[in-house]
């Protein structure tokens, strides 16, 4: 484990202490969790940027179009089902 000294404005420090208390964890544990979340977000962004750098934009947009169409079909199918059930009552 490493020890880090962190300088924060007093009001920010107080809000972090309150947040930690509301979650029932120590300030140290809260900072650990926030650090892990920041690293995970960074790693995810880096991975997607690397994948996107070699991607074919046209193919990616075509996949998104197919997903939109599938969502639209599901939504209209759900509405059809609801209308059918309502008509039977």
Give an overview of the whole structure.
With 89 residues, this protein is mostly helical. Helix content is 82%, strand content 0%. The chain is built from three helices and no strands.
Annotate the secondary structure layout.
Layout: H1 10-23, H2 27-53, H3 57-88
Keywords:
2 domains, 3 helices, single chain, 89 residues, elongated, mainly alpha
Concise synopsis of the structure shown:
With 89 residues, this protein is mainly α. 82% of the residues lie in helices and 0% in strands. It starts with 9 loop residues before the first helix and ends with a helix.
> Total number of helical segments?
3
Provide the residue-averaged pLDDT. 85
* Overall tally of structural domains: 2
| Principal-axis shape | elongated
List unreliable stretches of 5+ residues: none
């Amino acid at each position: 484990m490493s020890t880090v000294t962190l300088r924060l404005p007093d009001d920010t420090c107080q809000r972090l202490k309150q947040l930690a208390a509301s979650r029932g964890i120590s300030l140290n544990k809260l900072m650990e969790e926030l650090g892990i979340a920041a690293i995970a977000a960074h790693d995810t962004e880096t991975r997607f940027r690397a994948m996107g750098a070699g991607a074919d934009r046209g193919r990616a947009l075509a996949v998104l179009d197919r997903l939109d169409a599938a969502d639209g079909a599901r939504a209209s199918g759900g509405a059809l089902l609801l209308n059918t059930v309502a008509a039977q009552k």
